[in-house]
């Protein structure tokens, strides 16, 4: 191996060590092939962390922020998980426990109940729905005056109808359509929490 290649390799390795270094745990590693030594702190497997706060973008208001796709993918991992009254963990969720758990993983705090979540964020008109918006329904009683159920929008059609993921007491975490008679009769409104 030529001296230029050896020197280049040593410089690259020192730069990688400097970028990945954690100054609290120094380690001297010697490359025994050609007596090239470099100081490294510790090079571990590194995974970027999602930021905990996701401010509303000043960009196009007709598009969901980039992290929403990650949020919906995360929520989708729980499809099929059983319903658990008062549940707020992956051992089982009720509807508001599910939405608050998902949002919490992305640095946002939602209130504990579906009716109190309905007071958070900004109201959204049906034609302005975006993936990641919260949608609210009356509970089992077909009363349009009291929120009793919440879900997270996954897909929106041009006509304002949508699909949403939620924890249903009959099916657990599932995806439903706003056009299903059970939900279309009970739909109250939507909120955007960012």
TrEMBL record:
The keyword tRNA processing does not apply. GO terms for biological process: proteolysis. Residues 65-194 form the NlpC/P60 domain. The keyword Protein transport does not apply. InterPro entries: NLP_P60_dom, Papain-like_cys_pep_sf, Peptidase_C40. GO terms for molecular function: cysteine-type peptidase activity. It comes from the Bacteria. Residues 1-21 form the signal peptide. PROSITE patterns: NLPC_P60. Coiled coil: none annotated. Pfam families: NLPC_P60. Keywords: Hydrolase, Protease, Signal, Thiol protease. Belongs to the peptidase C40 family. This is CHAP domain-containing protein. It comes from Muribaculum intestinale.
């Amino acid at each position: 191996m030529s001296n230029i290649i050896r020197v280049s390799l040593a410089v690259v390795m020192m730069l990688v060590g400097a970028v990945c270094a954690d100054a609290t745990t120094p380690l001297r590693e010697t490359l025994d092939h050609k007596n090239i030594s470099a100081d490294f702190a510790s090079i571990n497997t590194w995974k970027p962390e999602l930021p905990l706060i996701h401010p509303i973008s000043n960009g196009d208001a007709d598009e969901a922020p980039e992290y929403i796709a990650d949020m919906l993918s995360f929520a989708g991992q729980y499809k099929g998980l059983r319903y658990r009254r008062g549940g707020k963990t992956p051992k089982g969720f009720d509807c508001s426990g599910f939405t608050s758990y998902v949002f919490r993983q992305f640095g946002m705090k939602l209130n504990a109940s579906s009716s109190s979540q309905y007071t958070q964020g900004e109201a959204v008109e049906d034609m302005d729905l975006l993936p990641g918006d919260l949608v609210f329904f009356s509970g089992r009683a077909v009363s349009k005056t009291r929120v009793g159920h919440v879900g997270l929008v996954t897909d929106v059609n041009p006509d304002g109808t949508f699909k949403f993921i939620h924890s249903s007491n009959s099916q657990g975490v599932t995806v439903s359509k706003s056009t299903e008679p059970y939900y279309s009769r009970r739909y109250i409104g939507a909120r955007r929490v960012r």
